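Example 356, ligand flavin-adenine dinucleotide.
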Amino acid sequence: MDIVIIGAGLSGLTAAVTLQNAGACVQVVEADAQIGGRIRALRQPVTNRVLADLGPTWVWPKHQPVVARWLEILGLKTFEQFNQGDAVILGYGPTPQRQPLPGQDGIARIVGGPTALIDTLARRVGDANIRTSTPVTGISEDGPKHLSVHIGSGEIITAQKVIVSVPLRVAATTMLLPWAPKALLDAMRGTPTWMSTHAKAVALYERPFWRDAGLSGRVASRIGPLVEVHDHSGVDGTPAALFGFVGWPPQQRRNDPEGLRQAILDQLLECFGKAAASPLELVVQDWALNLRTVTNLDLSRDADHPDVGASLLRQAHLDGRVQFAVSEASDLSPGLIEGALAMGERAALEVLGTSL
Ligand SMILES: Cc1cc2nc3c(=O)[nH]c(=O)nc-3n(C[C@H](O)[C@H](O)[C@H](O)COP(=O)(O)OP(=O)(O)OC[C@H]3O[C@@H](n4cnc5c(N)ncnc54)[C@H](O)[C@@H]3O)c2cc1C
């Protein structure tokens, strides 16, 4: 095998397509049973239609040139985040208040959700080149020309080059990397994984009934449990949905998942009336429970939006044979979808730049 890419999230799949386009032979190995990493969708079980995003939702193509370019390459379209009407403001007075809240300039949603990026990239990479349920436990040198990628089952895959497309803290704490200098391991451990401690709630409805009442679907709350809510309906209003970020800390969510669901329904009732209390479906996606994304280091302290990390994370290691490609390693939009696309592409080009 020429190049093994560890991790089938957005960065890893972007690297794979870029390498394949240049004629390289790649194999992507993914620990999880499904691909996509932090990009995940709630799907209709029979038709597989994407109903809602359980990971990221927004892109800003007007301000993100790499996102704009990859949307074009992959033939994907965007639409505006719905924000017409009043928001509901909670916790700033004795009762909920209504007022318009300005949207962000250029904020957009991808038709089909960010999962459309994953599905389109994965189709191009090809099923035969992606192995799921294949957790990597370490990378070691196997002479001057080869690397050994160790799999949990005991299998070893030999590669000339490896791209590590795994959250940096997860890689530093779960993989044996005997060749990695302390400064690199410190930089990896020092890089929080963006949104890894967060949880997202999605409520699906028959119709976006809040729009009839002149409400935008937005909530800003000081009391929670959802601290922000947004209209999450499809491009033509179907499927109708709201999503919110959960304000309860990870431990409280873990201790009382049923209490959280009830508190969310109570809050939706208070903000949007009776119809909101009986969604067709309410799904809480808790990323703090996903050990492919979060580590104890992330859980020990809430992270701000990531700064640009150490340049060591963007350099080649082991004589140009190992590169990192995960969103947080990027010097452009680290932590975001744009960072993942930029870093996947950059790592692939670096690998191509050094002879195989
Ligand atoms: C709730 C939430 C909301 C977000 N909202 C936004 C948003 O609105 N806009 C935006 O731009 N960004 C947002 N983000 C961030 C965005 O999702 C990430 O930047 C992007 O998905 C990162 O992709 P990645 O490929 O770099 O990493 P990941 O998606 O983390 O992919 C890493 C992959 O490595 C795999 N892996 C881990 N360990 C191993 C191992 N040992 N062996 C093999 N594989 C392994 C994982 O399973 C995973 O598939 C959000 C994230 C979350 C969680």
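Summary: Residues 1-39+114-195+290-356 form a domain with the FAD/NAD(P)-binding domain fold (CATH 3.50.50.60).
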